[in-house]
Design a protein that fits this description.
The protein is built from 6 helices and 8 strands, in the order ββααβββαβαββαα. The protein has 244 residues and is α+β, with helices and mostly antiparallel strands. It has one domain: Aminopeptidase. The protein starts with 24 loop residues before the first strand and ends with a helix.
Amino acid sequence: MSWANPSGFHAWTGGRRAIRLASPTAGSIAALSHWTSTGTAPNYTRPSPSTGRGGDWTYLPYGPYASEEEFLEWAHSASRSNDPLFFAIVDLASGKAAGIASYLRITPARGSIEVGHIHYSPLLQGKTAGTEAMYLMMKHAFEPGYRRYEWKCDSLNSRSRAAALRLGFTFKGIFRQATVYKGRNRDTAWYSVIDREWPALERAFRCWLHPDNFDEFGRQRRRLEEVRRSLVGAERRDEEKGER
């Protein structure tokens, strides 16, 4: 292997900065819309009052909020940010903005981008729409040319860590004493997906989200992890057949 041209190296031309969406990027049951402090934010607070379920804000550097006015003050500030770049997650069945997510540490020169600041109301928690929203976020990052998609969370946040693995991220390690927030230490767990993994992950997302994967009550027939494993197994069998 030559250091001047290492094996497997491909020319990197750089990614493009994530685009502010002029209109929602919609899936079948969820959509992403640029976060604003009016319109989407009030709808977001109604299904998940800012004064309730305070534990949902435990691992975010802000919140919970004592009133809707206090929440809207934060929302106004967030709507003016380019990094993090916030999106409202719209539940298409209700038409309500039912969650928040953002891109952050957006680095086109290195082709890396992170997803974070995720907060779901009960309309999205444990729901198919919540998974589709994460699929749309990942898709919207890789399509412009980013090559590394990151997920970071407090190492104590077991729900976030489980979600990262379910969505297909690979665990990369723990950054000990990475930061301090809300008066406590945070060891940060790092996860990532890279561009060559994205095509297989996208196939798995699309297969899992297909209506045939859900019964008449909306219950999944196969878990996302099972779909992903079955597709990888099928591809390997096809490769083996081609080598014979």
